[in-house]
Write a structure and sequence with these properties.
Length: 148
């Protein structure tokens, strides 16, 4: 696996007068060199809904916002003050958020009706056995969006 830390991967989009196409599986095969075992979709009806924190020792998760926008947080529980990542992504600037093993991670919708597509290297059964859950505020209010 070439991913050691969480990252936000810009993706190539092919568009024409009909719309656009994002070849996600090709990108992931090249980047991860791992098999994809599960794809699922999660929707948040409201702005500010938090999902997570989940931690996995083996599983790699990849997230794509199909509609709306979201804030992603990934924290290494062994070094939570220094080894943390925050990403914001949306359907207007699509990219992939890749979370390798060893990071507690979660996401918050920044708009109503945000839809997330999640891709995993583990089946649901494998993921449940590899899952440690943390309170989303364990490391403070990492979810706040502050005016600038």
């Amino acid at each position: 696996m070439s991913i050691k830390k969480p990252e936000c991967l810009d993706i190539e989009i092919y568009s024409d007068d009909r719309g656009y196409l994002v070849p996600v599986t090709n990108i992931l095969k090249d980047k991860l060199n791992k098999d994809i075992k599960r794809v699922y979709i999660a929707g948040n009806f409201g702005k500010g809904i938090i999902r997570g924190f989940h931690y996995h020792k083996k599983e790699i998760k990849i997230f794509y916002i199909a509609h709306g926008s979201a804030k992603f947080v990934a924290i290494n529980p062994e070094n939570p003050e220094k080894d943390r990542f925050i990403f914001v992504t949306s359907d207007r600037h699509p990219n992939l958020i890749i979370i390798p093993p060893g990071y507690a991670n979660g996401w918050m919708s920044l708009e109503n009706n945000t839809i997330l597509m999640s891709i995993s290297t583990s089946t649901f059964e494998e993921s449940v056995k590899d899952d440690i859950r943390y309170d989303p505020y364990k490391w403070g209010d990492v979810w706040a969006v502050k005016g600038r």
